């Protein structure tokens, strides 16, 4: 049995799994950051490899699924270089985390998946010639329905309450002030940070908690997020992608988001079968690495690159 290293780099954290004849073990690490030079991926890969005590020659194949690989980097080379430095010259797959998430959630079948955490995107594929990405443009230009999107909407709403432009969001203002401090400090906390998307997403637990307590403003905000995610999923499901879909990501821990997405998807595409995810992005990365090692995988640049 071969030994596989699967890596998942995302805005909410990083994970790795070493799976081989002796079983599997996992490690977790820091979130993926974005600097002026692009993705800061190499230190995360190195730290995960060290945490798993992997040495050159221990691994037969590697797959790294990374957030931002399509839009926030100069391509997969930065990730490949990190892998080569950490474990040597082995069969390597570098993919968008949308790809690894789709493969994991659908159990390797064709269809579409919407994934949302700090950011959000949807990917539809027939596993042959079509790899269709929707959204994933980052917290300034897109990522509708994501943690950073919800956080931005929540802070904007709280600021409207603070400024006297509305009077129904006092609980949300109080929660966000308790987390971030006075509103006058928010621009500096957000605009000057490399991890500003993560800072925005940090208020999501407050929104979810208030919504669970029947706060109408927060419930409406989460329902809007669910509808936005459904819109992305519908766009990803255009032919030749078959009408099979799933989801993945921490935002769906809020039941109201999933409920709203189901309703919107059923209204827009009643033919689509929406199934719970069968696996994670880390499972998808392991599957892709094994397929690459068996020569049962073909590249689909820029979504999936083989070395």
TrEMBL record:
<dbReference type="InterPro" id="IPR052519">
    <property type="entry name" value="Euk-type_GlcNAc_Kinase"/>
</dbReference>
<dbReference type="InterPro" id="IPR002731">
    <property type="entry name" value="ATPase_BadF"/>
</dbReference>
<feature type="domain" description="ATPase BadF/BadG/BcrA/BcrD type">
    <location>
        <begin position="7"/>
        <end position="272"/>
    </location>
</feature>
<dbReference type="InterPro" id="IPR043129">
    <property type="entry name" value="ATPase_NBD"/>
</dbReference>
<dbReference type="Pfam" id="PF01869">
    <property type="entry name" value="BcrAD_BadFG"/>
</dbReference>
<protein>
    <recommendedName>
        <fullName>ATPase BadF/BadG/BcrA/BcrD type domain-containing protein</fullName>
    </recommendedName>
</protein>
């Amino acid at each position: 049995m071969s030994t596989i290293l699967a890596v998942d780099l995302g805005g909410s954290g990083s994970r790795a799994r070493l799976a081989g004849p002796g079983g599997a073990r996992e490690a977790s690490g820091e979130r993926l950051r974005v600097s002026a030079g692009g993705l800061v991926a190499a230190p995360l890969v190195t730290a995960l490899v060290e945490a798993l005590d992997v040495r050159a020659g221990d691994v037969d194949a590697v797959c790294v699924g990374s957030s931002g690989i399509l839009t926030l980097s100069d391509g997969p080379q930065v990730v490949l270089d990190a892998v080569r430095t950490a474990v040597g010259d082995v069969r390597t797959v570098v993919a968008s985390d949308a790809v690894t998430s789709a493969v994991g959630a659908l159990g390797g079948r064709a269809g579409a998946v919407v994934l949302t955490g700090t950011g959000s995107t949807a990917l539809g594929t027939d596993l042959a010639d079509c790899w269709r990405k929707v959204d994933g443009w980052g917290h300034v230009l897109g990522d509708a329905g994501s943690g950073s999107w919800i956080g931005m909407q929540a802070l904007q709403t709280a600021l409207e309450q603070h400024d006297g432009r509305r009077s129904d969001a006092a609980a949300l203002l109080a929660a966000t002030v308790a987390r971030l401090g006075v509103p006058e400090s928010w621009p500096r906390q957000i605009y000057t940070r490399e991890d500003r998307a993560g800072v925005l997403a940090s208020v999501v637990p407050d929104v979810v908690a208030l919504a669970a307590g029947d706060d109408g403003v927060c419930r409406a905000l989460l329902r809007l997020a669910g509808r936005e995610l459904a819109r992305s999923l519908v766009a990803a499901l255009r032919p030749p992608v078959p009408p099979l879909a799933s989801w993945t990501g921490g935002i769906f821990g809020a039941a109201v988001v999933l409920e709203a997405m189901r309703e919107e998807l059923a209204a827009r595409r009643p033919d689509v079968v929406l199934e719970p995810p069968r696996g994670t992005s880390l499972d998808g990365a392991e599957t892709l690495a094994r397929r690459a090692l068996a020569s049962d995988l073909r590249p689909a640049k820029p979504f999936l690159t083989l070395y």
